[in-house]
Amino acid sequence: MTTTEARPTDRKPPQLVDMSWDPITRIIGNLGIYTKIDFANREVVECHSTSSLFRGYSVFMKGKDPRDAGFITSRICGICGDNHTTCSDYAQQMAYGVKPPPLAEHIVNLGEAAEYMFDHTIFQDNLVFVDFCEAMVKATNPGVLARAERTEAPRGEIHGYRTIADIMKAFNPFEGEVYKEALKVSRVTREMFCLMEGRHVHPSTLYPGGVGTMPQPTVFTDYLSRLMRVIDFVKKAVAMNDDVFDFFYEALPGYEEVGRRRTLLGCWGAFQDPKVVDYRYETMNTWGKAMYVTPGIIVDGELVTNNLVDINLGLRIMLGSSYYEDWVNEDPFVTHDPLGNPVDMRHPWNQTTVPVPQKRDFDDKYSWVMSPRWLDQRTGDHLALDTGGGPLARLWSTALSGLVDTPYIKATGHSVRISLPKGESLPETTLEWRIPQWSNTIERDRARPYFVAYAAAMALQFLEEAMGMVRAGETKVFENYEVPDEAIGCGFHEAVRGVLSHHLVIKDKKIANYHPYPPTPWNASPRDMYGTPGPYEDAVQGQPIFEENGPDDFKGVDIMRTVRSFDPCLPCGVHMYVGKGKTLTTLHSPTYGANHG
């Protein structure tokens, strides 16, 4: 971990204690976090991320009719199933050589925008902020709560709360005003979603080639009326988040180190531009850069590439600590991409999934999650990219690329400006998300409400363009196609919590190979064959502990804030080991002079 300030040299003899959180229940697997915590020096010294569930979609997709792929892969997740359907349709459209009509693209974009607004709101306000609410802070950092009660909220004229503690109280589960209002907003945004995609969360009107949504004017006006009802909530949410997170930096010096890791972010892009996209692999770089969320890979603050062809070719699925048999000695499904570039055996197009169940061993195999990595051709490093919970990578990549320039969104090269119209009580507002100093817990969480605003702003543009088409009589929403005997395809999209890709190989009109890679394998991956830890492990391991409780009543709030900042699907079923822990050993610190005196 890179520190922002020098660690004290007068370190105490370590007091190492084993502590675990297992399971953190998720839709796509059971997450467990196993740590060793040094309570003498208040830091996590070791972390392992495990998944105890094998699902095997890549196994039972083989032999299926490829046209069923979107409906089947939607069931990968009970929260963001529509993201899978959308991404699967993108991959199929490449394989079939079909381009949906422009109005269909706007309908898909409107559905996905509603999904981002729904999911980010319910996650941030009803799950993440339980860890920042008055009740939790009182139990873990009473000194911080006392300071919050004395601290005026800088943006109170926007959100209406006088002190930071007042905001924290509004986050209290089941009772807080914001907690309850967010549930109402999530209902409205889910209705918006269903207007476009038919059913939440497994859409009934999304197909390769277009949509089954009837493009009547009332469909769009009903969406717009609901969007305008939540616009002011979005503005208030950004202000409240900024107030609380700025306060934490001030109240707990050094808190930037919580969940901090090297800036290694991946974004696969979202919101297709109907005027540019044709789903051909040969033009993927062009239509990828035309997306309204720009794809990109960021390493140490530098945009390495925003070319989807380069992003695709760099994908590597690694083993190491995973319960699988290697496939590198098998025959490849794909040797070269449509541009003639060689395709690696560890690429998803060539992956074969052979599970090998065994006992968990943190020195060997300990997780059902594989280890997706991206090969940086400049250095030869296999990078353990993370998604920043989704919004951090999306905003960072879009900002650095500087390509998005719409009436509502402007990427500046160092920030993203988001313009929202006048709502019921608040005036027209321009928000600006700026590239932060760190990729850490607070900045992952801070980016989330900004991206809700981003999705709302883009929805306004999609509505205007879609309604213009309907008024002009352009109401076609589906293009027919034939399934080829042999083909390959890849879809790139952003699930709510980050990068999502589907890779498809068709032979004899059936699926010969299919591999979906959602954000969770990237973020929750275990140590790979080179010993590189996954993002959860890397972010937790080495972070300081600011909770005031000791081992006997430790709640692990800093650790949980870090894990949740990645939006690990829906971590609402956390079961904490509440014993006193197991003392492993007490040793002298290896720093100079520790053994003297």
Automatic annotation (TrEMBL):
**One Pfam family name from the record?**
NiFeSe_Hases
Q: Which cofactor does it need?
A: Ni(2+); Fe cation
Q: Which GO terms describe its molecular function?
A: hydrogenase (acceptor) activity; nickel cation binding
Please verify whether the record's keywords include Oxidoreductase: yes
Q: Any idea which positions bind Ni(2+)?
A: 77, 80, 569
Superkingdom of the source?
Answer: Bacteria
| Binding-site residues, Fe cation | 80, 572
Q: Which residues, if any, are the signal sequence?
A: none
Residues the record lists as binding Mg(2+): 575
Q: What is this protein's record name?
A: Hydrogenase large subunit
Instruction: Provide this UniProt record's keywords sorted from A to Z.
Output: Iron, Magnesium, Metal-binding, Nickel, Oxidoreductase
Indicate yes or no for the key word Magnesium. Answer: yes
EC number(s) stated in the UniProt entry for this protein: 1.12.99.6
